[in-house]
Amino acid sequence: MDLESACTARIDDYVAGGTSNLAVDRAAAERLLTALPEYPGFVVDSRRYALWAVDAMLSAGIDQFIDIGAGIDAVGVVDKLASWPESAARIAYVETDPMCVAQLESRVHKDERVAVFPIDLFAPSWVTDPEGVWRLLAADRPVGLLMASIAHYELSDDVLASALTDIYDKVAAGSMLAITHLSGGQDPIAATRLEQAHTQAGFPVRARNRKELAALVRPWTPAPWAPNALPGALRLGIGLLARKAAPPSSSASS
Ligand SMILES: C[S@@+](CC[C@H](N)C(=O)[O-])C[C@H]1O[C@@H](n2cnc3c(N)ncnc32)[C@H](O)[C@@H]1O
């Protein structure tokens, strides 16, 4: 296992006051905090938004989830699951960092409703692979997808949009997608500051605004239909909740 490279999940753990981090993560986090002292606000708000989104998905009847870039603590979704002991809920954690995978596996050990998949979001065809997450989840029922604080690390709009379209094409109608993303809002100077601070820390990001993010998630349909009017404005970022609409019924088209 690589103990010499910092990992964004452990950097966020450190800035949020956690203890699951290494010296290399703390050094990178301190570089980031020097340039961007308010960064912890984004981490806190992003996780809070992800949990709101899980509640919105549950309210919409979704009981199976894919948490992509789950990190170490998976934004507390495991703990939420534990509070539904009788439920049929299932969670697939998708994560590339081997140490995060190991930590998640130790947390979900023996809970057969949860599994960790060492899958790269951008690997071709992962979402159609029957040996992947669909070993745990039912492909013919809606899924709740979480992408908390991961999309901004992909610098290419095309790569990100293509991955989101592949997921859309595979999942059942009624599926929902929640994304949190670093953003300078409409202020290009704020966006540049966010990007420069992350580049200096060794983790380049794209700080996209809401319009840019909404364009990338197409063909997903963004809220306002969402229940509970989720607050989408995060400190230093945005939250977006979207849904795959049901196809028009044949009687409507005839
Ligand atoms: C900033 S952390 C966010 C962790 C968690 N979602 C949270 O909000 O606290 C981003 C996570 O995404 C993972 N990650 C980055 N690129 C990935 C990819 N292409 N596929 C799957 N996971 C990825 C990283 O290893 C890291 O654990």
From TrEMBL:
Protein name as annotated: S-adenosyl methyltransferase
Molecular function terms from GO: methyltransferase activity
Taxonomy, superkingdom: Bacteria
GO biological process: methylation
Organism of derivation: Labedaea rhizosphaerae
Keywords on record: Methyltransferase, Transferase
